[in-house]
Design brief:
Blueprint lengths: L5 E3 L5 H12 L1 E5 L5 H17 L14 E3 L17 E5 L7 H27 L3 H4 L6 H4 L7 E7 L13 E4 L5 E5 L6 E4 L5 E3 L7 E5 L1 H6 L9 E3 L11 E3 L2 E3 L13 H12 L3
Parallel strand pairs: 1-2
Antiparallel strand pairs: 2-10, 3-4, 4-5, 5-12, 5-13, 6-11, 7-10, 7-13, 8-9, 8-11
Bound molecules: 2-oxoglutaric acid and fe (ii) ion.
The site of 2-oxoglutaric acid (AKG) has 11 residues, from β5 and β11.
Cofactor: Fe(2+)
GO molecular function: 2-oxoglutarate oxygenase/decarboxylase (ethylene-forming) activity; metal ion binding
Protein name: 2-oxoglutarate-dependent ethylene/succinate-forming enzyme
Length: 280
């Protein structure tokens, strides 16, 4: 049974170990990283409250700009699934809407996670074989510089009620569309990644670890050297089913004009995928 092991961000061979985990599983897990844990736990707490009791007036998601609050009733379906995921979420962009009292923490997290992402992309690049790296049109870390497209999604998976639609899960198996995703361990377990042999591996969920995964755009830019692997969030059982789960993926998107491959720019790639998902 394959497993995922956390890599110590401060270890001398961290970059190589991390890149090799990404190559093998599409996922890398980091400990001792520079993201502020107290900030993450404060965001989890304040947003759990906001989802449960906050005033959502004025935050209805916008189809045009894709920012704002996406209630469970319109929550997305993964590619190939008929049943909606059991989740609601908020999409934050620095230029977008957010409850003003929650803005400072979220902006601080967004800035810190983007900075770390640039370092991690440089690790990925440094550990790409030369014959593949020669196809990167610009350094990977510069693809996301000053991007207005990078999206922070704050997710709330509500406690299970028992009256969920048959077959519905917190997040059905899917791949991420973007370049790289940065995800602090959630406040509850449930995230799994599919291994090459088809089995599902639990992603370590110890609070304070940071999960990073390859998205479809980096798979495309690396000629499939780095795989964008399927992952899902399974439903809790027993006592855990009474708990909310909060998680916060940062989807790193290149600037729209960045060339990913002979076939795609970031913009044409994203539009094609969103059209397939029926949201464009
Ligand atoms: O909630 C999680 O742990 C993962 C969420 C996820 O994969 C996504 O929103 O793309
Ligand atoms: Fe995902």
């Amino acid at each position: 049974m394959p497993t995922l092991t956390a890599v110590d961000f401060t270890a001398p061979d961290a970059a190589r170990e991390f890149a090799s985990s990404l190559r093998e599983t599409g996922f890398g897990v980091l400990k001792n990283h520079p993201i502020d844990k107290a900030l993450v736990s404060r965001i989890y707490e304040t947003w759990e409250n906001w989802f449960k009791t906050g005033d959502k007036t004025g935050f209805d998601f916008s189809r045009d700009t894709q920012d704002g609050f996406f209630p469970a009733s319109i929550s997305e379906k993964a590619q190939g699934y008929d049943v909606k995921d059991i989740k609601e979420y908020f999409h934050f962009y620095p230029w977008g809407r957010i409850p003003e009292d929650l803005r400072a923490d979220v902006e601080a997290y967004y800035a810190g996670a983007n900075k770390l992402a640039a370092t991690l992309l440089s690790w990925v690049e440094a550990n790409t074989p030369a014959d593949i790296a020669k196809n990167y049109r610009v350094p990977l870390s510069s693809m996301i510089a000053d991007s207005q497209k990078t999206l922070l999604r704050i997710l709330h998976y509500p406690p299970m009620t028992g009256s969920e639609e048959p077959g519905a899960v917190r997040a059905a198996a899917h791949t991420d569309i973007n370049l790289l995703t940065i995800l602090p361990a959630a406040n509850e377990p449930g995230l799994q990644v599919q291994a090459k042999d088809g089995s599902w591996i639990d992603v370590p969920c110890e609070f304070g670890t940071l999960v990073v995964n390859i998205g479809d755009m980096l798979q495309e830019a690396s000629g499939h050297y780095y795989p964008s692997t399927k992952h899902r969030v399974i439903n809790p059982t027993g006592e855990r089913s009474e708990k909310s789960r909060i998680s916060m993926p940062l989807f790193l998107h290149p600037r729209p004009d960045v060339v990913l491959s002979d076939r795609y720019t970031a913009d044409s790639y994203l539009k094609e995928r969103l059209r397939e998902l029926g949201v464009l």
